[in-house]
Specification:
The protein is of the alpha/beta class. The protein contains 14 helices and 17 strands. Helix 3 packs across helix 4 and helix 9 runs parallel beside helix 14. Keywords: Hydrolase.
Length: 421
């Protein structure tokens, strides 16, 4: 079934309010076995009429949010009636509901609110116990423009969500005959690029009948989305994991920091962080996760060389010989954090965020990441992240968390080997 969403509101296009309806409604529709074919956002006013007129001629169902208020720019009901070729009348039940809403709150109802009781002839009023704007359902049989069902829904989430569950979902099920239930699995990867994933697995995934594949890249991670029957998804997942099982950190939508905290809690391991160029972002991301207190013992931000020496015991001669941004200093920071904290694992980062401070040998974007574990020599990785400062810090924190994840996985693997007969 071809479903389009029309979100109205100038504030959505001005950027003063985030448009979350498309994301939420897409997820809710997928649960019903339905998919969104198009999402359009228009300002308040006459643009609603044109966008709705186009949508009903393409779609089987159009879901409209916003524009049901009492003000002059709220013209969604007028636009819908005009497009469908239906007269607007004042609905007595809707008016009584409006009057009761204000009476229950001890407030007088302004005359302009009567506008919200206007309903296209024959349309169904969708009750709104959480606000003054009732929803409206225009079934396909009433729509003189096209065989398209139109739902007019309030914009505020506190009003939209209950109305969706109580009124919209049953009607969508009836219209669609239940929908075709696809399954979806989303795998999230770190340490590998979107193009690398695509090049390695996409040809094989395309051969799997009934499998829809999608990719979504963000700073430091990539999602691979598989949609289809469970059998097709299982085959596709197996192919992706054949090449990238080490880079896959989640199949349940968790963030990398959530995965790290959970893994360390299960393993009973403690973590310390020593940060220079990230300014505490690694520790901040870890402590964003509930239960982080069972994992993180210490977090140092040693931005100045004096702090690296005083807090982490980095030798002055190492700093003088190699510079603050170096493999030797990253290793010394990690070892110092491990020793001072008594943690099981420590991660350290030192780099050049820019836009100044780089050199030919160490250009802007250079970072050294050190990992130290009890009983092991520290390991240091050099990376390049030539971005703005905010992007650089995010990428470095992502790499650091992924190094922790890998270290915990190897620790658990070693324990399994040691425990096996």
């Amino acid at each position: 079934m071809n479903i389009e969403i029309l979100n109205t509101g100038s504030e959505l296009l001005l950027g003063t309010r985030l448009n979350t309806h498309g994301q939420w409604m897409g997820q809710e529709l997928f649960k019903l076995g339905l998919r969104v074919s198009r999402l359009v956002t228009v300002p308040d006013g006459e643009a609603i009429h044109g966008a709705l007129d186009e949508a009903v001629r393409r779609a089987d169902v159009v879901l409209v949010t916003g524009g049901l208020g009492p003000t002059s720019d709220d013209i969604t009901r007028e636009a819908a009636a005009g497009v469908a070729g239906i007269e607007l009348i004042e609905d007595e039940a809707a008016l009584r509901s409006l009057e009761a809403f204000f009476a229950q709150r001890g407030r007088p109802m302004a005359p302009d609110n009567r506008k919200q009781a206007q309903v296209p002839v024959g349309a169904e009023v969708l009750p709104n116990p959480h606000g003054t704007a009732p929803g409206i359902y225009i079934p396909p049989r009433l729509n003189q423009a096209a065989n398209c069902a139109v739902f007019l829904l309030p914009g505020p989430p506190r009003e939209l969500y209950p109305m969706w569950a109580a009124e919209v979902v049953p009607k969508l099920r009836a219209l669609s005959g239940g929908g075709f239930r696809s399954e979806m699995r989303q795998m999230t990867f770190a340490g590998v690029g979107e193009s690398d994933l695509h090049q390695e697995v996409d040809t094989d995934l395309a051969q799997i009948e009934g499998l829809e594949v999608g990719y979504c890249a963000r700073l430091g991670e990539v999602d691979v989305r598989l949609i289809g029957s469970q059998e097709a998804i299982d085959v596709g997942r197996a192919r992706v994991m054949q090449s990238f099982s080490q880079q896959c950190f989640s199949e349940a939508g968790e963030s990398l920091e959530e995965v790290v905290v959970k893994a360390m809690r299960v393993a009973g391991l403690k973590l310390a962080t020593a940060e220079s160029c990230t300014g505490g972002l690694i520790a901040s991301r870890v402590t964003d996760v509930p239960g982080a207190s069972a994992v993180l013992t210490h977090g140092w931000v040693t931005y100045a060389n004096e702090a690296k020496m005083a807090e982490l015991g980095v030798p002055a001669e190492v700093l003088a010989e190699h510079g603050a941004v170096s493999e030797a200093v990253a290793a010394a920071m990690a070892e110092g954090a491990l020793k001072a904290s008594g943690a099981d694992l420590a991660v350290a980062v030192t780099g050049i965020a820019g836009p100044e401070g780089g050199s030919e040998e160490k250009p802007v974007g250079t970072v050294f990441l050190g990992v130290a574990e009890q009983g092991k020599a520290p390991r240091v990785v050099r990376q390049m992240h030539p971005r703005d400062r905010r992007g650089f810090k995010r990428m470095v924190s992502q790499s650091a968390l992924d190094l922790i994840r890998q270290a915990v996985a190897k620790h658990e693997e070693s324990n399994l080997i040691a425990d096996s007969p």
